[in-house]
Amino acid sequence: MLDVRMLCLAALMGREASGYDIKKDLEKGSATGLIDASFGSIYPALARLAQEGHIAVRSEGAGGRDRKTYAMTPEGKAHFLRTLAGPLPEEKYRSPFLFAMLFADDLPRARVRAMIDRQIVVWEDKIAAIEDMAACASGAGESFVAGFGEATLRAGLDFLKRHRRRVENAAPVTSLDRQGGQPAPETHAPQAAE
Amino acid sequence: MLDVRMLCLAALMGREASGYDIKKDLEKGSATGLIDASFGSIYPALARLAQEGHIAVRSEGAGGRDRKTYAMTPEGKAHFLRTLAGPLPEEKYRSPFLFAMLFADDLPRARVRAMIDRQIVVWEDKIAAIEDMAACASGAGESFVAGFGEATLRAGLDFLKRHRRRVENAAPVTSLDRQGGQPAPETHAPQAAE
DNA sequence: AGATCCATGTAAGACGTTACATGATTTG
DNA sequence: CAAATCATGTAACGTCTTACATGGATCT
User: How far apart are CA A183 and CA A114, in angstroms?
Assistant: First the structure.
């Protein structure tokens, strides 16, 4: 449940698509942090789903590699819905930001401030992305999920803005603060120095 | 970042502990959905961290298998804090519930209702767990995270209660509804029928 | 002509879970 | 004394990511 296979089926409930298309679709939803998958998992998943009869393939083009368009079969649709209606695993919220905040009392104040500043931007962007998504939601389910995402993000944002002073003041002042800079590494490059 | 190793170090920032203790500690935090790890990953992680000098081991007892108590070294502490202050990866929220809600328009109304009922209980329990946690929070960071969790969960809960009618009414009425039952499988047993 | 996007796939490796193997100690 | 809890570890397996290999089509 909620593995690449389900993600592919979900994408194909909306429209026919190639593996490439699916990845693009997921990237949009991924902006909200809900879903994501790489080509390395999508292509094998599609191959297996087709083999199992959940989806149908149609090969187009004659080039070196064909473009393959996948579409849900009636059986696949039923299977997907049956799985969704079945027992669902627990949800998981993995937040490196919140994890770091747990130790704010031991982190340089400048870094704590920078992390919070950054998180505010991230969440504001997510809210904007959700609003775009909500605008073209096709059903009650989709607008419900969008509304939910917006409500919780706004609540988080609000909490952050209202209570940031408390954590920031608890964080120790270091040389960083006195020099007035935050040499903050803001994005996470997978290879970056550890 | 945010792998088992970091989780172990985080647990050991608070106190000395054995692998077993760490697992128990994480289970408490895990109630909030923030963190989790199994013995199968904790023990190898501790062995490697000790080998690298991030933590120190002390073997006690003389039985077949010693109880090993791990404690942070100054080097380990510095490493942990440096990592936390460094670039953080994006947060991920994996919610099978929300994923299912995306397709509420195609799911039996009785199931949608049951899922929402269940989610309300889950979140209410989490809020209660967080309140317990907040009561014994040792620093500003911990109470901040607890407060954040509570605020967002309450917002989610509130949204759910106020808007559930909309999704429920969009969900198709099936035989399940007319018979008045929801034979709902509520928990997810890993082996359960797919 | 070079860059960028479209497009598919494979292989290696990271990371984690479950299940198994083992045994001491405490509690009912 | 049986059951639960404390306690550590390994092996098999699943799942996903990264990096690589390949090449057509489109845009500048």
Answer: 9
The full set of domain ranges for chain A reads: 4-85, 96-179
Interface of A with B in 37-76 (CB under 8 A): none
Whole-structure pTM value: 0.91
- Give how far B45 is from chain A: nearest CA, Å: 17
* B194 Cβ contact partners less than 8 Å away, ≥ 6 residues apart: A83, A86
State both tokens at B31.
Answer: 């109630």
CATH class, domain A4-85, is: mainly alpha
Beta carbons of B146 and B80 less than 8 angstroms apart = no
pLDDT tens figures, A33-89: 888 999 999 999 999 999 999 999 999 875 557 899 999 999 999 999 999 999 999
DSSP-derived secondary structure for B100-117: HHTTGGGS-HHHHHHHHH
User: What whole-number distance in Å separates Cα of residue B67 and Cα of residue B60?
Assistant: 5
Answer whether residue B194 shows pLDDT above 50.
no
Within an 8 Å CB–CB cutoff, is residue B27 touching chain A?
no
Determine the distance in angstroms separating the CA of A66 from the nearest CA of chain B, rounded to an integer: 31
Q: Which two tokens stand for residue A126?
A: 């997510």
Instruction: State which nucleotides on strand D lie below 7 Å from a protein beta carbon.
Output: 6-12, 15-20, 22-25
